[in-house]
Amino acid sequence: MNSLELIGETIIPESEQEKIAALICSCEDPEHTYQICVKTVDSETMKHYNKRYRGLNETTDILSFITADLPACEIEITDSEDEFSTKPIRICDIIIDINQLLQQKGIRNMEEEYRAVLIHGLLHLVGYDHIHSADAEKMKKKEEYYFRQTQGEL
User: Fold this and answer.
1) Distance between CA atoms of 151 and 115, rounded to whole angstroms?
2) Residue-level pLDDT, tens digit, the chain, 154 residues
3) Rounded distance, CA 122 to CA 100, Å?
4) How far is CA 23 from each of CA 29, 152, 153, rounded to the nearest angstrom?
5) What secondary structure does DSSP assign to 13-72, as a single string?
6) In a 3-state reduction of DSSP, which class is residue 78?
7) The domain 3-153: what is its CATH number?
8) Domain residues of the chain, as ranges?
């Protein structure tokens, strides 16, 4: 079972964010269970995080981190609430700059921009990247796919 915790302003309902995270994590990396904290911040706070973790003294729309990989629990638990214990657990953080989303959203509304950026961050957590052009193209196609898949969610 994947879990999601939200800190800060919620642009789309928590239940929808949970569905998006569950869809991407289960389809792209079914070997892990994900425990994800999504935190929304202002631009000054994001600038601080970006400088601390990436060495860049500027804001960005999203940061995604895998903070810990834990082995699967060896205890057999039958309660369906604890089925996560049978897979390795990946503990992750996503930080989203709400002000940056407002600036970059273009013709999208805030909910669409937030969903697009959340999908982008989740894809980073499951192993996608966009440093090289071939990887960027694969990631872009996945972003578009999951954006279409989750359009009816909102």
Assistant:
1) 9
2) 689 999 998 899 999 999 999 999 999 999 999 999 999 999 999 999 999 999 999 999 999 999 888 887 654 544 455 544 578 899 999 999 999 999 999 899 999 999 999 999 999 999 999 989 999 999 999 999 999 999 865 4
3) 18
4) 10, 13, 12
5) -HHHHHHHHHHHHHHH-TTSEEEEEEEEE-HHHHHHHHHHHH---S--SEEEEEEEEEPP
6) coil
7) 3.40.390.30
8) 3-153
